[in-house]
Write a structure and sequence with these properties.
Elements: H1 2-31, H2 41-48, H3 53-61, H4 74-85, H5 110-122, E1 127-133, E2 146-157, E3 160-173, H6 177-193, E4 196-202, H7 204-211, H8 218-222, H9 258-267
Helix pairs in contact: 5-6
Length: about 270
Amino acid sequence: MQWIAYFIWGAVAVCAGVLIISYFYLRYIAQHPPVPEGLSVADKQAQVLPFDEKRWRLLLSRTPFNDEDIANSVTERIDWAKSVFGVDPEWFQGGDVAMFPCLSFHNAVGDSIDFIRQRLNENPQLRLYVVKPAGIVLTESAYEASVVLCFAAPVVYAGKSAWRYWPVNVCWEWGYEPEQMQCRQIIYVAQHSGCEVIGTELDIADIYFLLESKLIPEPLYTISPDPTLDTPEEQWDAVALANAGEPVPGQSESTLSAADLQERLKLAGWNIS
């Protein structure tokens, strides 16, 4: 009787092993499906990854480009959007994904100096949009009071000019004094670097889209659709918000003082007078 028990347990173990091996094999096949020979790695990936045509149309609708300007394959479209506009490739797969990676200047305002200097070296037409909700006064008594920052610079492709955008993850928000001060400092850096600082207003819903980098709101495109045109008229005095730095409750040890920030601006060769 004992050998029967061993036989049964042995059979169970073999079956369990086969099931485990089959599971991992099928999982591997699902993640790495066979593709026809002769295709490039990029084309193989394009066959696997979904591509949201509506998002592609949305991107094109906010640029001067059309399908004739760009190659037809999904892979080339994704590569083009990333290289020209910095669009995250995963955004084209759909889902709750940011269109652009945010510039991470949180508790790192000094990094904005390096970013601005690099962008100005590439194109002196750099600008900083300082965006607040339309009709909202920036006071602590207004709950919806907020300011979102977004850099923009011209790009050229196929003889046409458009704007590339860089949303910033630091914002002026009601009740958060340390982040408010960092937002003011970034505006101060942009002001003294020679970067254009433009105060504009958007609907509060568009503000949140921009803050989360889900997409660039259409009004931000329409106020200046062509980089070759003049600077759009300011809707509010954003430079008045600029501040080199003041101590505020709750700020991090890595927060730059006014003296530290101004010294870094001097080292960058910018005039702070």
